[in-house]
Structures are given as structure tokens and as C-alpha cells.
TrEMBL record:
Keyword tags: Membrane, Transmembrane, Transmembrane helix
Transmembrane segments: 20-38, 44-64, 85-105, 117-138
Protein name: Uncharacterized protein
Superkingdom: Bacteria
Length: 152
């Protein structure tokens, strides 16, 4: 993607977000495949974690929707990037990528002999949900609708 084609959105408020999201998705999928294939991570835990994270993202995204935008033109409305929030979103993306890569590289060291308990499962669900909420809030707060004076 050329530098001039970059346009901030609430999903990708910073230039690095799209690349980091793709890399993180690859490593998360690889980690889930390893967990299901070789680990003792139960299927119910993966399903519950995924559903809890998706539910949290939907709730937070609905509550932090960009106010004042016409829904028909929201995808093309001019946005202003908030540099502090955008930097925090990139840091969250980098942390997520680091954790995903670390999980895949250290998988054989600890995952195959780990016996999951119910408490550990619900702790993992809570941590995954909290991460999803933080991630979503940072990316949505990183942009704001442009005011009339900002658009000029």
C-alpha cells in the first residue's frame, strides 16, 4: 500500500495497524491450531474464549461508536487521528503480536503438559475478554470525526 493511499479508520487508525493485525492473526491462528492438535487445551475453552471476546468487542464497539456521523456516509467521513490514542493502539498491537509469537515459539515448552482447570479456563476467558475490550477501545478512541474547521 503506497504511503499516499493511507486513510485512517477506526479499525486502522495508524499506518502500522493493518500490518500488525495481519501478522498477529497469522500467529494467533497458528497458536490455536497447535493448541487443538498437540495441546491439552479443551475445545469448550477455545469456543467460550472466542465468543466472550466477540461479545465484548460488539458491546464496546456499539457503546463507543463515532458520534455525529451519518450512518450512510460513515465509511467515507473525514476523520482526525488522535496521536496519543493511535500510539497506544500501535503499542497494544505490538504487545498482541509479541504475545502471539511468544506463545507459538514456547508452545512445546509448557502447553503440552499443562492440565487446564475450570479456574484457569475462566481466568483465560476473563483475560482474553479484557484484552479485546482494551484493544477495541484504543482503536476506536484513536480517531474522531473531523470538525468543519479540521476538514478545511
Amino acid at each position: 500500500m503506497p504511503r499516499t493511499a493511507y486513510r485512517p479508520t477506526s479499525a486502522h487508525p495508524h499506518r502500522w495497524c493493518r500490518k500488525l493485525h495481519r501478522a498477529t492473526a497469522v500467529f494467533v491462528c497458528l497458536g490455536l491450531v497447535l493448541s487443538m492438535t498437540f495441546g491439552s487445551l479443551p475445545l469448550w475453552l477455545l469456543v467460550v474464549m472466542t465468543l466472550a471476546a466477540l461479545l465484548a468487542i460488539v458491546i464496546v464497539a456499539a457503546g463507543t461508536d463515532l458520534r455525529g456521523l451519518d450512518r450512510q456516509r460513515a465509511h467515507s467521513a473525514p476523520l482526525v487521528v488522535r496521536p496519543g490514542w493511535a500510539a497506544a493502539a500501535v503499542v497494544a498491537d505490538m504487545a498482541g503480536l509479541f504475545l502471539a509469537v511468544r506463545y507459538v515459539l514456547n508452545f512445546s515448552a509448557y502447553q503440552t503438559d499443562l492440565n487446564w482447570t475450570v479456574a484457569a479456563g475462566f481466568t483465560a476467558v476473563a483475560a482474553g475478554t479484557a484484552w479485546a475490550v482494551l484493544y477495541t477501545v484504543l482503536h476506536i478512541k484513536a480517531v474522531a470525526p473531523a470538525q468543519e474547521r479540521d476538514a478545511a
